[in-house]
């Protein structure tokens, strides 16, 4: 036994060293991204810094590695954190919580708990079955897809920390308010009956595995590879399209029609976003182009929130556990929250 | 015969988990049968909150991730004694 423990410690120590080295390499690379992009564009390719093409290529060669490096680092840290915060752990924290505190906690946990829309139903059943109040469960269901590490990193990388922070705050607010409203309306009967009849056999559950740091690092590395492997094409295409359009469509081209004075633009953006189903990585580059061309910030954020938080496929999955009235209510409340956020941002000046 | 179940509604990761289990065990000495559980009520009855989940001899061994092949083999060895 002693030898296995020792081997485990050795593994852990080696992993910490490796992660430290990788972090150092990351910082060095990240600090020199502009220098590298300049060297590639102006020296190696010999493009002129004054030309449209030169600027576009330089922008592309700087932005793509920047966003990808930010994504990789952030996803690694979040997925490492996630080896501590499983849905089961989340449920334990939320059980028996009251309205308010419970909704706030649920919304915050929605940001960091692993969530994939294909797991939405088992997660919903698991919450409700163990006594997490319905309203609190909904606060979780709203933030989980809307405010996540990919959305935040992309917003941070392309718009800066202010907009990323505002997005997170408004996402959390919408989730808390929607959850409180749904909780107050007493919709328990609008949940499919089988949810309450599920009989969980606790004996089938294994005591949770005790993970070593080596296990945690290797899980985090796997997820990072997996997620970055999935989103990098979106980032690449999005930034390429953005860099291309940048030079050809005049700035403020859409300012007249979709600027902050167009009242109908926000609700229209939300309606347009519902049938579109995309992840944050796919939508943010598009959104950044729209903003460059003069679409108001509130309208753009409303569009993005609608695309990621109100997706038709997810509603169809949730229909398995929610009766139509509750689905309708859910969509309605979240849509209103997004529209209100959109107007708020359009009224404020950034 | 070892009874293995993959819980999940048919998402891409559930298929990957099934493939991993088969890759880990096929050609090995352990006889097993693999059942896919896709009904939400049945999945929930195992207390699983994130899919895909792996169940060996009615014990949930992992959920929400795709374990490595050597890990799957280790679990199978562990439960082999229970299976008759």
Description:
The complex is a heterodimer of chains A (350) and B (84). Chain A contains 17 helices and no strands. With 350 residues, chain A is an all-alpha fold. Chain A has one domain. The model of chain A has no long low-confidence stretch (mean pLDDT 84). Chain B has 84 residues and is of the alpha+beta class. Chain B is built from three helices and four strands, in the order βαβαββα. Chain B has a four-stranded mixed β-sheet. In chain B, helix 1 packs across helix 3. The longest helix of chain B has 14 residues. The radius of gyration of chain B is 12 Å and the shape is globular. The model of chain B has no long low-confidence stretch (mean pLDDT 86). The interface between A and B is medium-sized, with 32 and 24 residues.
Search tags:
heterodimer, A: 350 residues, 17 helices, B: 84 residues, alpha+beta, 4-stranded mixed sheet, 4 strands
List the helices and strands and how they pair.
The complex is a heterodimer of chains A (350) and B (84).
Chain A: H1 2-31, H2 33-44, H3 52-82, H4 87-94, H5 101-112, H6 120-129, H7 134-146, H8 149-159, H9 161-184, H10 194-197, H11 213-248, H12 255-258, H13 265-273, H14 280-292, H15 297-309, H16 312-318, H17 324-347
Helix pairs in contact in A: 2-3, 3-8, 3-11, 5-7, 5-9, 7-9, 8-9, 8-14, 9-17, 11-14, 13-15, 14-15, 15-17
Chain B: E1 2-7, H1 12-25, E2 32-37, H2 40-45, E3 53-56, E4 59-63, H3 69-80
Parallel strand pairs in B: 1-2
Antiparallel strand pairs in B: 1-3, 3-4
Helix pairs in contact in B: 1-3
- State the CATH superfamily name of chain B: Glutaredoxin
Widest sheet of chain B: strand order? 2-1-3-4
**Most extensive contact:** A-B, 32 and 24 residues
Shape of chain A: flat
Number of helices of chain A: 17
Structural class of chain B: alpha+beta
Q: What count of helical segments of chain B does DSSP give?
A: 3
The residue-averaged pLDDT of chain B reads 86
Topology-level CATH name of chain B: Glutaredoxin
Low-confidence parts of chain B, pLDDT < 50 over ≥5 residues?
A: none
């Amino acid at each position: 036994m002693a030898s296995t423990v020792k081997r485990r410690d050795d593994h852990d120590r080696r992993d910490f060293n490796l992660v430290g080295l990788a972090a150092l390499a990351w910082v060095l690379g990240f600090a020199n991204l502009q220098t590298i992009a300049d060297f590639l564009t102006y020296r190696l390719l010999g493009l002129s810094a004054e030309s449209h093409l030169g600027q576009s290529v330089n922008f592309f060669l700087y932005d793509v590695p920047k966003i990808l490096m930010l994504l990789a680092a952030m996803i690694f840290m979040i997925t490492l954190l996630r080896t501590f915060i499983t849905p089961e752990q989340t449920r334990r924290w939320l059980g028996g919580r009251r309205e308010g505190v419970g909704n706030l906690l649920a919304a915050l946990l929605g940001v960091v708990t692993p969530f994939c829309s294909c797991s939405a139903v088992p997660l919903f059943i698991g919450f409700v079955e163990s006594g997490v109040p319905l309203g609190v469960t909904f606060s979780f269901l709203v933030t989980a897809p809307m405010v996540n590490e990919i959305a935040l990193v992309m917003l941070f990388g392309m718009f800066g920390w202010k907009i990323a922070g505002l997005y997170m705050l408004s996402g959390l607010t919408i989730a808390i308010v929607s959850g409180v409203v749904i909780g107050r309306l007493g919709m328990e009967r609008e949940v499919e009956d089988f949810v309450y009849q599920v009989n969980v056999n606790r004996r089938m559950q294994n005591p949770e595995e005790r993970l070593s740091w080596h296990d945690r690092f290797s899980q985090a590395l796997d997820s990072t590879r997996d997620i970055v492997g999935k989103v990098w094409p979106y980032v690449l295409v999005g930034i390429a399209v953005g860099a291309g359009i940048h030079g050809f469509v005049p700035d403020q081209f859409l300012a007249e029609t979709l600027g902050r004075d167009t009242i109908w633009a926000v609700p229209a953006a939300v309606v347009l976003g519902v049938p579109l189903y995309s992840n944050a990585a796919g939508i943010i580059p598009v959104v950044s182009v729209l903003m460059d061309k003069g679409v108001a910030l509130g309208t753009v954020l409303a569009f993005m929130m609608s695309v990621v938080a109100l997706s038709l496929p997810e509603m169809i999955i949730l229909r398995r556990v929610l009766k139509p009235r509750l689905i309708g209510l859910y969509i309605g409340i979240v849509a209103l929250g997004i529209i209100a956020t959109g107007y708020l941002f359009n009224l404020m000046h950034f | 015969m070892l009874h293995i179940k993959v819980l999940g509604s048919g998402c891409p990761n559930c298929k990957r988990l099934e493939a991993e289990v088969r890759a880990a065990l096929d050609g090995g000495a352990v006889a097993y049968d693999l059942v896919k559980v896709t009904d939400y009520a049945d999945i929930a009855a195992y207390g699983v909150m994130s899919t895909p989940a792996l169940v060996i001899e009615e014990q949930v061994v992992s959920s929400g991730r795709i374990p490595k092949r050597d890990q799957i083999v280790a679990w199978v060895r562990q439960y082999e004694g229970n299976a008759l």
